[in-house]
Amino acid sequence: MPKRALIDHRPWLLASVIAAVAYYFLRDNPIGEIWLIALKGTGVACLAFYAMRRGAVSDGQILAAVMLFSALGDMGIEIDFTLGGGLFFVSHVLAIWMYLRNPRAKPVGSQKALGVALLLGTPFISWVLSQDLAVALYGLALGGMAACAWMSRFPRYRVGIGAVLFVISDFLIFSQMGTFDLGDLPRFLIWPLYFAGQFLIATGVVQTLRGEHPGHEKAPQPE
Fold first, then answer.
1. Other CB atoms within 10 Å distance of the CB of residue 211
2. Vertex 74, ends 72 and 79: CA angle to 5°?
3. Do 135 and 163 contact (CB within 8 A), yes or no?
4. In sequence order, what DSSP letters do the residues of 33-78 get, joined into one string?
5. Measured between alpha carbons, how far is 10 from 50 in angstroms, rounded to an integer?
6. Distance in angstroms (rounded) separating the CA atoms of residues 20 and 44
7. Where does the pLDDT of residue 214 fall: very low under 50, low under 70, confident under 90, or very high at 90 and above?
8. Would you say 137 and 155 are in contact if contact means Cβ atoms under 8 Å apart?
9. For residues 125 and 178, is the Cβ–Cβ distance under 8 A?
10. Most CB contacts within 10 A, which of 43, 79, 95, 222?
11. pLDDT tens digit string along 138-181?
12. pTM to 2 decimals?
């Protein structure tokens, strides 16, 4: 990678990781609720800026919007669970649109089977864990996002697995709403699984788009 590109763009990924790790270790620190909410949203917001700068073609801008609404959801859920869920719902719809624009040419039977399992199994498990119909409806969008990611032409071992990690993270959230007692497991795993999933999705999509459109990256601003 050219040195100039490294200087101009990789810091968004570095800032994203730093913000996510800082939130994980400071979330119980009495530094102020507003600051913690802002810190929580910063991690994925940096991924949105990364996508905006590195994926200047239309799908890259859709990805930026996906990450932006996810960042808003990260903050919104700390204020009101329904607000955060609504913002994530929008993020999933945008992601579904992006993945449907980029279908895999010749998916094999096992890939199709897993796609169907994600689409149908995610809302069902969401309902079983939460016993909440609204959560199950959200789970339909969540499962649709994961299924479309798995069936898209983007690398499955980055984007597909990233989407599955997102689903597992939400399952852990839903388990806290129902009768399933997983002890401290959700507390320790929800945020790392979620952020790792978003990071894999963002970098996997951007890498693919840049490989196909190397000349479409936004030019750095003059100093």
1. 8
2. 90
3. no
4. HHHHHHHHHHHHHHHHHHHHHH--SHHHHHHHHHHHHHHHHHHHHH
5. 8
6. 8
7. low
8. no
9. no
10. 95
11. 999 999 999 999 999 999 999 999 999 999 999 999 999 988 88
12. 0.89
